[in-house]
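Hello K.,

You asked for the raw outputs rather than the summary table, so here they are, unedited. I folded two proteins back to back in the same session to keep the settings identical. This is the first:
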Amino acid sequence: VLVDGTVVGDASATVLDNQTVTQDFAFNGSSLQVSILDSGVAGVAGAAQTLDANLTNTGELPANQTVTLDWGNGTYTSTAAVVVAGGSSVTETLSITTDAGQAIGFYTAEVASEDDTDTVEATLAPERSINASEVPAGGTVEVTVSGQIGSLSTVDLADEWSPAVNSSAQEVSSTFPVGFRLLTSDSVAVAFDENSGNFEYVYQYDVSPDATAGSVYEWQPLQGGDGSALQVDGTPFPILGDESFEIAETVDDIVLDSVSS
């Protein structure tokens, strides 16, 4: 027996001349179950957030449906049309792009079919940008940490890197009055109160003139209560974006390498 081109059952019967035989068939329709494959998604304002969802049709008929990604309780949505054969599974990738002014926070991302839903936590985090991916020994690195605050909040920024540099970091600019600051050779810590809207903090530090070409300076990720983080009213968020830079080779390094070889 075919339904929309799909075999859903079979039967056999002996039919005599001039005899009509009626056969009843019982089969399941379609049911599209949703399972988000990502344990969580994170991004910065103005960028895409993408997740993968497994869609399983537990019925016998094809599931011809529209699957919807709802991010932030209707703040952003996207859809995808899918056809999944009975008893089969597919993986569908869905994404949304947040506005540049979307506030830092934890949001809910929900994927829904006509039959089922699944949710996961979506994080919108502050962003770190570095002015260069390669810096010569003795050079200067400028770092910007920025984001959006949704309401009047107390903000604490801790940015940590390794290895340490040869002098303390220096504050370049901020879009807010800094209430507390501690700048050392391997970290920056500041605290401030911020109204809703964009904030930006810029600092710089000088790399040692004795830094080895090819060595990498890395920012420490948020791990538990340690590492680089931005806390909004006591809630920590990871700082995404640029995470490292490398000490560039100089002309002298290249000459020495060629001589030694």
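The second followed immediately with the same parameters:
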Amino acid sequence: LSNFSQLLVTDKQDNGDVYAPNVCLHFLSDFKTVLCKNVNFQHLECIKEINLHGKKSNNWYSELYQRLQMRTYIEAISKGLVVVKKTVPVGRKVVIAMNKHFIKCYSAYGYENRAVLTALRQAVGRGSKVGSTIWQSCYWNHDTKHWEMEWPEEKTGGISVMTFSRDKDDLEVDMFHSMACYLLTQEGKYTSESENTYVFPCFANLQKGGAADKVSTAIEACVGKVEEVTTDMTSSGLRVASSDEMVLHPLLNVVGAIV
């Protein structure tokens, strides 16, 4: 991975230009995903034990990613190139407006999109995660009164536990109501007791980035129908806005948790 990272920095396109920073980072991310799927997990654990400085660490991929990011940014800035394309946030009010639209559609498609948007907003997650979550990794936490999903992290081999709860202010973004409407309109898709039943089967088994693109398509379908939605909004905006909302929430001491 380190050698591949070095290649991304030095390699050039057919026209002689270097690759944009985000392109390099996507290449590294994709290469890591393929590696995790094809390399024996025990070998992967051995890799995790050594970081770039020869010391024991579980953050070896993060360090490699950040180093590549820094080098490509410096290279791009020195050539006067655009470093980062700004992502337009898709905030709470926009999600509520879209979900109102999807509810009024009175269709399985509309209720599915509403459930997916609500889940992504609450989990501050990427669109691809909704395509890999299975019912067998979902459960009710009796202590916290939360519904929990285990979201697989393909690049690290780990699992993140995402908690979902009720929304006391707006029914449109209430996770329980969204999932109930979604399940009631799916024509019995979830009566099977087979293993690995996907929570959102229409978002599963798609090509790389397919689930995120499908979420973006759902957002795009609201342009012209929902006043708050603009043409430059994508699935990435859900994560950006949710992150800001989480950091600025008055009941969360994010800074204190970090320091």
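The first strand starts at residue 138 and ends at 141.

Happy to rerun anything if the numbers look odd on your end.

Regards,
P.
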